[in-house]
Amino acid sequence: MILDLIEIRRDIHRHPETAFKEERTASVIQQHLKRLDLDSRRCAGTGVICDIQGKGPGPTIALRADIDALPITEATGLPFQSVNQGVMHACGHDSHVAILLGAAERLAATREQWPGTVRLIFQPAEEVVGGASKMVEDGALAGVRAIFGLHNDPTLPVGTAGVAAGPVMAASDRFAVTITGKGGHAAYPHQTTDPILAAAAVVVGLQTIASRIISPLEPVVVSVGQFHAGTTGNIIPDRAELRGTTRYFNLKVGEELPGLMETVIGQIAKGYRCRAEIKYDYLVKPVVNDASLTALVRSVCRQELGDGNVRDFDKVMGAEDFSVYQQIIPGCIFRLGSEGPFGLHHPQFNINEECLDIGAGLLAEVAKKALAELG
Which CATH number, 3.90.1150.10, 3.60.130.10, 2.40.50.140, 3.40.630.10, labels domain 5-168+286-374? Predict the structure, then answer.
């Protein structure tokens, strides 16, 4: 093998870049593809696309890896710890890049043995769920019949995979709330209309949407992650701001959420003599794995890892903009055991690097089997 996947992963880990700033990462990817005598092009600014042509005509399928890092200060103490202060590959996208490059090398070496085309999609900005749509706008899926991807899973042992059909990850939207009141001296609260008190009640009240308004049989999350108000301890401010996220699987629930939130927030704010404004943005739909493509992935994983090392997994309320591709063509994303000591998005997150070769082999075999079956 020409490529050292561990070395590649550590290099990218050492130089993480956040959404749409992945200039060095994209350049490194293109350099490694060039080492394999593969042509590539930029897409969506900092994304990369590479087509590997097989022997003779056939369908085109895509393999996707996300490449961006997170705004987290790394605390692993690794020799290859991030040199970019406040930025870290805490979700393992560095490993995804190395894995897809490894799959590229395997596919390029066997291109005389399979028909059709494999398109490699190195996608920026997954963490802000904005990269996939930009890649699509820039033609990443042109002519593609199906798409596959993986995500490392530190809760699974190395040498195992999680595969599931149907809805596997939730839709994700965001909201911002501004509560406006009347500020003043904190020693005289009766002369103010306290937006902090109103906003605190809103945080609590929003939880009634999941517990008392939406059916308990429908998975739904309404979480406030930011609460900003005031400048000092003895002043009641004029306004308070909240920001958060909603998650759900049922698209009808997603349609209802903005109106429900406006009602709950507006009525609570009014009860505290304040005004409320809400801004709600739809981001990505649920990840729904195609049944036939999932069966294909499962068969490859069983063949490569053994029946006992392939397991189902429960759907989660996390989100992935892989769903953007699935709105256009069938797709399947599966989990690769990376056996890390800490969970995703943790400042001490790390992987067992034995998963790199395993993941590369799985993606290459998935691609070849998909070309054979779709052809």
Answer: 3.40.630.10
Quick one: what percent of the chain has pLDDT higher than 90?
99
- Helix ranges (DSSP H) in the chain: 5-14, 23-35, 93-109, 131-137, 195-205, 207-208, 251-271, 291-305, 322-326, 355-374
pLDDT tens-digit series, residues 47-103 = 999 999 999 999 999 999 999 999 999 999 999 999 999 999 999 999 999 999 999
Looking at the DSSP assignment, which residues form a beta bridge with residue 336?
A: 152, 161
CB under 8 Å to 232, separation ≥6 — which residues? none
Query: Structure pTM?
Result: 0.94
**DSSP 3-state assignment of 234?**
coil
Q: What six digits make up the tokens of 208? A: 């009634």
Length of the chain measured in residues: 375
